[in-house]
Amino acid sequence: MALHAEDTYWHSASLAGLRVIVTGAARGVGKGVTAALLERGAAVLMVDRDPAVADVAGTFGVEGRAVPLVADLCDRSSYQRIVDEAVQTLGGIDALINNAIATNEPKVFTDITLDDFDLVFDTGPRATFFLMQAAYPALKAAGGGSIVNFGSGSGTAGQKTFGAYAGAKEAIRGISKVAALEWGKDNIRVNVVCPFAQSDGVAGWSEEFPEVYNKIVKGIPLRRIGDTQADIGPMVAFLVSSDASYLTAQTIHVDGGMGMYR
Ligand SMILES: NC(=O)c1ccc[n+]([C@@H]2O[C@H](COP(=O)([O-])OP(=O)(O)OC[C@H]3O[C@@H](n4cnc5c(N)ncnc54)[C@H](O)[C@@H]3O)[C@@H](O)[C@H]2O)c1
């Protein structure tokens, strides 16, 4: 029997009862991942600095399971507030998806300013690190859980004009590996996903640099750019599920086989 995308093992309750925080959930990969988790029955605290996150949550039509929270990850008090909100509204935390990041790149290395650098490091590794730290007690109290952090082929392979972004993404991988080693005893797994998908962020970049974008897409073995919900979402759903119970400290490129690693 040929296996098609519609012949799948998951169903509308395969993640029922799972309580998940997703950062950067108002658009792009975070929105697609949220949709994939919701359609499998999970409850999601959708965090974003963009107030549109409330409307986005409403469009899912899953009363009580898509809870929006406006929070700016540059604000140091946001980490604990996010965790407290998840514990209060969802009743605990089983998974944390650190997806959000903001960047002023692409810019050549010598044009990247201190403010550009701080933006990408504050929203990337700093927020990821301290949200993990804040969520740890709740994850442990739940008997363990799964953290999925987002890396990038721009970091694992390097990519011109993404100097600070690449550094921030690789910092996230380092943080993830250490937490996986320390928290394995608590049954808390930590993995990194490096996606390539048609997010709002990529759409903006592709309009600005269509030639670079088209060349990259043509070079993807699967000959298409990923879909945030249908291609990236299922990997995150797998990682937060018990199917991935023996998987930790890994980096998985969900990129159609681009092989962005050196
Ligand atoms: N899309 C891709 O192909 C691709 C490739 C490699 C890595 N990634 C990674 O995937 C993740 C998502 O990327 P994307 O393309 O969907 O990005 P995006 O720019 O489309 O979306 C990012 C989201 O994060 C939110 N955000 C930004 N700063 C915030 C802050 N200070 N506080 C709270 N929320 C904030 C934004 O409002 C937005 O909703 C990122 O970690 C990115 O590095 C994506």
TrEMBL record:
List keywords of the entry alphabetically.
Answer: Oxidoreductase
**Molecular function as annotated in GO:** oxidoreductase activity
Regions annotated as coiled coil: none
Keyword Cell division recorded = no
- Is Oxidoreductase among this UniProt entry's keywords? yes
State the family it belongs to: Belongs to the short-chain dehydrogenases/reductases (SDR) family.
Q: Know the name of this protein?
A: Oxidoreductase
Source species of the chain: Mycolicibacterium sphagni
